[in-house]
């Protein structure tokens, strides 16, 4: 089915190339629209098959782990296996049910963190955090194209910022002193804003059922809540308030292009693209908007009635708009009056800082009368735009 999709995408790109700069006829547009509809149907089928394949793979991996444990027959476990076992016991039964060996594992894991928590917190295994971060990709599009750094602690990290678009060298004559061109640097600190998953409640009957993969259950819930929360703040964070919000993309991007009318067309996107200095456009630039905007953009045509959207051929040849790839992030605003609804530029200049050592707390007494146990996860992060010339925004004109 993937091969069929690739073939269809190749045909669409070939049609686009063959027509070239000539104005598209109604017949050619109808052919394109039909192929685009078929491509969308294939995407839906592939997504459904991948979901089923993922479930099968997860089941197979669990069986392999159980088989491996049986074959080991009590042999010494790896550090990763011991951490996973300690985490499973903590989730299901709490600290009180841990034997001395598992308690020593917990002590080692806490020692790896900056601020060991003695009030019921648990520094999750690295494998668990990696799975959460991987699942978060589905909710936080901008983090997939930003420059993401990981630190072992949450201490403030000074970071230099600048705008070098106006800097230029000079021609000098023989025996002539050169002029000075100091770069104006700003300094911003990357902190560690604390994001909570909110309480995730699970029935004690579920926790006692050894057939339920509690790690997978918590991974999915935490990734969904933390992923959406982080994604929203990376875009809409004001840099102010109590508690202090990170300064997200919307507040950091200073250069904006306003659409010519109360809706937008391909010319507005072209204006946004060229608002970014050519020096940045030579690199890996992206469009960023939400899925509602993509629906509109993918149907736009230029002055010759040519589609400005081209389908992906593979992960190495992604779908493009006006020749540049795009990323979807639901935290970006819809195309509404005065809203920054589309961004374009070099997102490697947008820095996302994440702190290793995700913490989970187990809440027993709070929900005892419901015969439930609560879980609360904490994720620390921050962001900044180190070069304001690298990314620009498109604002929809008010009526």
Automatic annotation (TrEMBL):
Chief location of this protein within or outside the cell: virion
Gene3D superfamilies: Major capsid protein gp5
Top-level division of the source organism's lineage: Eukaryota
Biased composition (Basic and acidic residues): 26-36, 45-54, 64-83
Pfam families: Phage_capsid
Domain Phage capsid-like C-terminal: 120-395
Compositional bias per record (Polar residues), positions renumbered to this chain: 1-14
Cross-referenced InterPro entries: Phage_capsid, Phage_capsid-like_C
Region annotation Disordered: where it falls in the sequence: 1-83
Places the protein is found: Virion
Protein name, as recorded: Phage capsid-like C-terminal domain-containing protein
């Amino acid at each position: 089915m993937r091969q069929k999709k690739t073939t269809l995408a190749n045909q669409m790109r070939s049609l686009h190339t063959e027509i070239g700069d000539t104005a598209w006829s109604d017949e050619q547009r109808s052919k394109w629209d039909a192929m685009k509809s078929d491509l969308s149907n294939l995407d839906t089928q592939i997504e459904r098959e991948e979901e089923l394949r993922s479930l099968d793979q997860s089941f197979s991996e669990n069986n392999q782990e159980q088989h491996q444990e049986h074959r080991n027959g009590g042999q010494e476990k790896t550090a990763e296996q011991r951490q996973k076992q300690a985490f499973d016991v903590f989730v299901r039964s709490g600290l009180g049910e841990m034997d001395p060996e598992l308690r020593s594992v917990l002590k080692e894991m806490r020692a790896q963190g900056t601020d060991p928590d003695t009030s019921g917190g648990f520094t999750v295994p690295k494998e668990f955090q990696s799975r959460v971060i991987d699942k978060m990709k589905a909710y936080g599009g901008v983090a997939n194209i930003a420059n993401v750094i990981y630190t072992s602690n949450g201490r403030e990290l000074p970071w230099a910022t600048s705008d070098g678009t106006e800097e230029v060298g000079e021609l000098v004559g023989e025996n002539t002193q050169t002029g000075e061109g100091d770069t104006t640097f700003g300094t911003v600190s990357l902190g560690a804003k604390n994001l909570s998953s909110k309480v995730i409640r699970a029935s004690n009957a579920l926790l006692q059922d050894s057939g339920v993969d509690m790690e997978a259950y918590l991974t999915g819930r935490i990734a969904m809540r933390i992923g959406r929360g982080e994604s929203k703040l990376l875009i809409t964070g004001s840099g102010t308030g109590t508690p202090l919000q990170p300064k997200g993309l919307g507040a950091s991007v200073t250069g904006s292009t306003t659409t010519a009318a109360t809706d937008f067309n391909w010319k507005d996107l072209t204006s946004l693209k060229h608002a970014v200095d050519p020096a940045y456009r030579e690199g890996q630039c992206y469009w960023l908007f939400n899925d509602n905007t993509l629906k509109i953009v993918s149907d736009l045509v230029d002055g010759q009635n040519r589609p400005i959207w081209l389908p992906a051929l593979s992960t190495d040849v992604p779908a493009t708009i006006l020749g540049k790839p795009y990323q979807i992030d639901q935290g970006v605003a819809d195309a509404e009056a005065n809203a920054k609804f589309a961004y374009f530029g070099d997102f490697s200049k947008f820095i996302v800082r994440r702190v290793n050592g995700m913490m989970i707390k187990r809440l027993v007494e709070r929900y005892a009368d419901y015969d439930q146990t609560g879980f609360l996860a904490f994720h620390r992060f921050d962001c900044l735009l180190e070069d304001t010339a690298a990314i620009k925004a498109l604002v929809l004109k008010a009526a």
